[in-house]
Amino acid sequence: MTKKEVTQLSYEITGYAIKVHKELGPGLLESVYEKCLKYELETNGYSVRQQLSVPIQYYDLEIDADLRLDLLVNDTIIVELKAVEAILPIHEAQLLTYMKLLEIPQGLLINFYTLNISKSLKPFVNEFFNRLD
Hints:
Elements: H1 3-24, H2 30-43, E1 48-58, E2 61-73, E3 77-82, H3 89-102, E4 106-111, H4 117-120, E5 122-125, H5 127-130
Parallel strand pairs: 3-4
Antiparallel strand pairs: 1-2, 2-3, 4-5
């Protein structure tokens, strides 16, 4: 994928998150938003993997740490969903680590416990994004 295509995909995912939020509103469990966003994305032709295990390789040691990312869309963007009063630095660090471990170029941190998804959403890119054409 190109940077432009990844950016467009991110924009489209954001649109579906806004749609889910407008329909359901804030105050539900993260798992509800996750299932609804996955439904919207798959219904509209996207490949979505849910609760994907994130392997950790430490030199020649493979660690089963039971880390699970929320959604991986088109094997290109990790979507981490929250339903919390405030996004904390640890939430951002978690997403950035998943992106690094899986070599994924972009991540979206979306908090559904808000009145406006657009203002609370945080996009992240890393060195893998810079390697795209």
